[in-house]
Amino acid sequence: MAPARAFWKGYLKLSLVSCPIALYTGTSAPDGQVGQDAFAVIREAMRGKDMVALGRVVLAKRERVIMLQPWDKAPDTCSSRLPSAVLLSTRVGSNKGERGQGGFSKANAIDPVPRAVRAYERLQTWGESYSDRHQDDVMRPLVNIGAIHGGEAFKPSRSAETCSLYLNINFVRGQTVMDVERELQAELRELFADDKDARFEVNVYLAKQPHLLETGSELIIAMKAGHQNVFGAPLPEVSPARYSVSSDNPVFAQFGVQAIQYGAGGISLSGGITVNEPGVGEVLSIENLASCAKVYASAATQLLSKQP
Fold first, then answer.
1. 93 and 14 part of one domain
2. Is 97 found in the same domain as 206?
3. What pLDDT, on the 0 to 100 scale, is given for residue 85?
4. Cα dist from 302 to 24, 108, 228, whole Å
């Protein structure tokens, strides 16, 4: 049987310590003894400071922001998906007992899992209300609880010290990160108002502003003309209209670079359109790629011809 092949390799760096990482299907681990020793230094440094690490990794041909935190002897990793979103970690614990990491109770603590269940149910309702109250003429922002972490699966006899809920919150133009953070904190304060032993934290670890390019911009005009030249038909409008929530456009916009989402798009082997074909991954049409390259060339020629 052929040995397993890593589908991604890279490095985790902290100051002068560099740890090689190899990812395999269904598992991940530092690569080799040197990598394991280096990761142990990084892991214990994060654990001692009660801190997490933020980094960037390319997966499925797209750069993603990831968060790593110590989890026993391995890294617990969360990746971001939507750039125009606020990613928050809500941690629930108890005020009773000896203080542990992050100021939460450690010994004789009340199990935080039931409180986390209450928070989960409350935030599900709050998410629907949030979406209704903050939608604008472009899109309805969504709230998703993407992960819950509390306790250790290999030590079920021990109660968790804290329980964390990880949220992905879309926001629209006119909102700020602090607005969203305050609204979430107020909701949790009201939830635990009758629980004097409860304690919670709301931490924002990634936030990017929504991006919407006006239809009269030079870039959109040039892309429409290029599409018309190549396909002989107008560029179809996206319906319903929405912000660029799944591309790198918000990053470019922060630096004043105009960008739109336009490309060949994924195709399904059964004939439809999809982002990822189950069991295969992203499938693209060579003909569509060639046509898109022609559109880009036509648009670039029009834009550059206007330069002084």
1. no
2. yes
3. 46
4. 45, 70, 13
50 token code pair: 């009660």
Distances, alpha carbon 40 to alpha carbons 17, 32, 109, 278, in Å: 10, 12, 29, 36
Q: pTM above the 0.90 mark?
A: no
- Tell which phi-psi region holds residue 211, choosing left (phi > 0), alpha (psi between -120 and 50) or beta: beta
Contacts of 76 (CB under 8 A, 6+ apart): 68, 69, 70, 149
**Are residue 136 and residue 205 in the same domain, yes or no?**
yes
Ramachandran angles phi, psi of 123, nearest 5°: -70, -25
Residue 60: what pLDDT? 58
Residue 301: which residues within 8 A CB-CB, separation 6 or more?
none
Which residues touch 63 (CB under 8 Å, ≥6 apart)? 56, 57, 248
Tokens of 289: 């790629």
Residues 95 and 201 in one domain: yes
Q: Is the peptide bond before 210 cis (omega within 30 degrees of 0)?
A: no
In this structure, the answer to whether residues 115 and 187 fall within a common structural domain is yes
Closest CA to 64 of 143, 10, 28, 26: 10
Return the residue matching tokens 């991604």.
8
CA 86/CA 89 separation, integer angstroms: 10
What are the per-10-residue average pLDDT scores of the chain (308 residues)? 66 67 61 70 79 69 69 64 48 48 44 85 93 84 85 74 85 83 91 86 77 84 94 82 67 80 73 66 81 93 82
Q: Which CATH number belongs to the domain containing residue 115 in this structure?
A: 3.30.70.360
- Asked if residue 188 and residue 98 are part of one domain, the reply reads yes
- Give the pLDDT confidence score for residue 99 in this predicted structure: 40
| 29 and 102 co-located in one domain | no
Domain that holds residue 242: 218-305
Instruction: Tell me phi and psi for residue 103, to 5 degrees.
Output: 85, 0
What pLDDT shows up at residue 108? Answer: 39
Q: What is the pLDDT of residue 96?
A: 47
Q: E strand or H helix at 36, and its extent?
A: helix 32-49
Statement to judge: residues 183 and 254 lie in one domain: no
Name the strand (E) or helix (H) holding 12. strand 8-14
